[in-house]
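Re: the 420-residue chain
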Amino acid sequence: MIQSTWKNLVLIAGLAAPLAYGGALPDAAPLGQAKGVALTGHPAFTKQVDVTALVASEVHAFAVAPVLQDFQLFTQANSGSIIQTSDGGYAFTGSTTVLGDLDILLVKTDALMNIQWAYAYGTTAEDTGVEVRATSEGGFMLAGQHFQNNNFDFYVVRTDPTGAYYWQGPYGGALQEYPAAMEVTPDGGCIIVGKTRNNVGYEDAYMMKFSATGSVQWSKPFSSGADGTYEFEGVANVPGGGYVAVGSKQVRVTGGWETYGFIAKVSSTGATSFQTTSGRFAYFTGVAATSTGYVAVGYIYRAGTFDAEFYTVRFNTTGGALWTRTINAGTPGDYLSDVRIAGDGNYVIVGMITPSDSQRNLLVLKMDTSGNTLWSSFPYPSTWVTDGQSLAMTQDGGFVVSGGYSDGTTRYMLLSKFSP
């Protein structure tokens, strides 16, 4: 029998405050502040780069990059996603072992990223956080992964604004389900996308739609049959109804396999509107939707190499590609991970480059609706090992990024706030 739990915690190395299993949650109380470093007085922590090295020759660019206003490092917490809350603060999810086992993490901060409260959710097995989104009443929906008895399932939590949960639990069948992304839906529920292992041992791209009370309304695989692996990595609500998801599709070819970027749109009830591919050796990792179409970001490998380049495609509402941009940043691995629509209608994108096997540098950039790069920036020194996983637009017109930082022995969750 799976035992759902809640735990109150403090994100300071060596300090944890576990509470009893089960029962009603207490009122959230201010907790200790995690390790953080202010940028004030440290101008060397920001680094502007020449964007011409990042932009294909036929694309013009100009650098008006935002300022890195603040960042925080959190110990004993692995990176997930982040949102801004209605009070101007932030909420982020990930996973933590601060209480001994692996739990889904939800942390609420003020506008200066000082922790107001933090909770861990899950079971006595292994549970990891993937995505957090705000609900209409100011609470939170969390998507995560549950692992027990060699079986992976989706794990979903809905909380009130103080972190007290309405419901939580694992969802899945006899096969394996791996979550990758989630969005709260207009009906108050949520949709989670990822992949599931099918009966012949291959993997299908997978969607599962939940009601506001945690009931599964429908689920839908995009089947590979015995052809390879399909998976979703990103999802977005479509204006006017329905959902668009992106990922990758592996197909068998003479002498081996090839992977293509994969995009699919479904109605609010799960009926397929279209599905299509883009780019040989491409992978999509994030998607944003407008009333006129969708922009997908990810990476693509150069033929015959293991070198990845930035890859962005804009699609119309029926899945036709309007433009494609491939950008070589000059390193063996260039990856885009998330995209959001800015207030001016253009696209803010986060990713990273990998100059070497041991080095990663967080990258933020902005593209217009025609695929031109407006600016790009590496906000941290090249000697820092940093990456970006997700981003959210903020009320002041800027944005916030969640990712990671490593000092060579310890990996920290890294939150970065950028000006408009």
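DSSP finds no helices and 30 strands in the chain.
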